[in-house]
Amino acid sequence: MADRVCFITGVGGGTGEATARRFAQDGYRVAMLARKPDLIEPLSKELEGSRAFVCDVADLDHLMEVCDMVHQEMGSPHVVIHNAARGNFTPFLETEPENFEKNFRVNATVLLYLARAFAPAMIDRGSGVIIATGNTSAMRGMPNFALFAPTKAAQRILAQSLARDLGPKGIHVAYVLIDAAIDAPWTRNRFWPEKPDEFFAQPAEIADEIFHVAHQGRSTWSFDVEIRPFHETW
After folding, report:
1. H or E element, residue 63
2. N or C: which end of the chain has fewer CB within 10 A?
3. Torsion angle (degrees, nearest 10) of CA 148, 53, 133, 71
């Protein structure tokens, strides 16, 4: 797969990094996007053939410039993974409504822009994969999630619409819903420092599942893929 490119947004120190490593392990050249260079620039030097692109995906004009750079410098991606997310988790009466629109842009609008940027080449090639990573908020609203859950629900429905449009053209679109706390430094240390390892979903195992979904046979494509720790109540 040395000629294949995987494009990933939100390459932080959790799912994004693990997914970049997983695809690089199988020979993909990975285009990694993050707002800060701290992680992705050293990671790009570690993962052969990969590139780091410092980009706040909420800046749609800059995002499209980066997509053009990837096309020109790395080639058309075979796999596109939208992992970047934005949210606010406070009572809706205590949060500025503009945050709703900011969340919607990162979670849903960016997915549309990525599909418009990369799907045409996939259609010409007759193959490709677009995956969005989501969470339980895509399925239900909870207290303090009013500015976040609707944007993830919209993301999932957008992905479903893309799947039904692009599937017959050979492009697999899937939504990987992670019903779990992910074992990343900012989640474990900030919110659940006392929890045992088994409480968390491990980024490397999430990445394995994303890789699996991206390589399903055409006769057995999945759309909704839910993953959670074995003990999770649902």
Report:
1. helix 60-73
2. C
3. 120
The pair of three-digit structure tokens given for residue 180, joined into one six-digit string: 């779990």
* Number of Cβ within a 10 Å radius of residue 62: 14
Neighbours of 58 (CB within 10 A): 16
Q: Is 53 helix (H, G, I), strand (E, B) or coil?
A: strand
Q: Is 49 left (phi over 0), alpha (psi -120 to 50) or beta?
A: left
Write the burial class of residue 35 (CB in 10 Å: 0-12 exposed, 13-18 middle, 19+ buried). middle
Contact call for residues 176 and 213 (beta carbons, < 8 A): yes
Cα gap 184→125, rounded to integer Å: 36
| Pair 108, 158: CB distance under 8 Å | yes
pLDDT in single tens digits along all 234 residues of the chain: 558 999 999 998 899 999 999 999 999 999 999 999 998 999 999 999 999 999 999 999 999 999 999 999 999 999 999 999 998 888 898 889 999 999 999 999 999 999 999 999 999 999 999 999 999 888 888 888 899 999 999 999 999 999 999 999 999 999 999 988 788 777 766 667 777 777 788 999 999 999 999 999 999 999 999 999 998 888
Residue that is written with structure tokens 């410098």 in the block: 73
Walk me through the domains of the chain, giving residue ranges and CATH numbers. Answer: 5-227 (3.40.50.720)
Question: What pTM does this model have?
Answer: 0.94
